[in-house]
Design goal:
The chain contains 8 helices and 10 strands. The strands form 2 sheets. Strands 7-6-5-8-9-10 form a 6-stranded mixed β-sheet.
Amino acid sequence: MSANGERYDLIIGNNVLAHVPDIGRFVAGLPVVLGETGTVTMEFPHLMRLLEYAQFDTIYHEHFSYLSLGTVCTVFERYGLKIYDVEELPTHGGSLRIYAAHVEDPSHSTSGRVEEMLQRECDFGLRDMAVYRSFSQRASRIKLDTLSLLAELKRNNKKIMAFGAAAKGNTFINYCGIKRDIIDGVFDSNIHKQGLYLPGSLIPILSPDTLKEQRPDYLLILPWNLSREIAESASCIREWGGKFITCIPEVRVF
């Protein structure tokens, strides 16, 4: 039980599980504070989607684990918890939200969605090393395709800028080896980042309010999972013929 002796009916952890350095010790503590008929619900990026769409830009230091439902079931069962339901979410390019209870708790029957997702993971090949080997090849192809496009645009004297100075985008930029000679700046709405620089590439971070002043010919959307929203918020670039670029799961100009 908790320090004050209480046990809880609901424990929520959204985008926590993948960030825990010792996932075993973390999960081991959950049944200690969970009530007899309580529920633990966790949300995390789905490994199957990461591999399916070559989302290599989500692999960075904040994430200690890249999780499938099968793996989470194994870890939870080891510490006396059963996963009785699962939902698919669009968050972060594809996430899972699981619902778990004490193994001996009869009040929560297991949904058919759990077995269905486990079978889909198996059919996808999450137990086959070939799936993981091909992942690096696909990441390399995206890198080369991106650099080829950006180099061609620069040869044609096009001004290229980016949007989104977050971990995902910074991982992508540094993996591709992109510097200020390719991208003039990156826009970000976070005022605490504006006026600073992306680590490694030293690309300056600007306020989106300067978009019309900068007038990029192409805007590389780094958080591709938010491409629709960003394209709408930066739609003013259409006024001077500007276009958008996303690079995952493949290079696209629109």
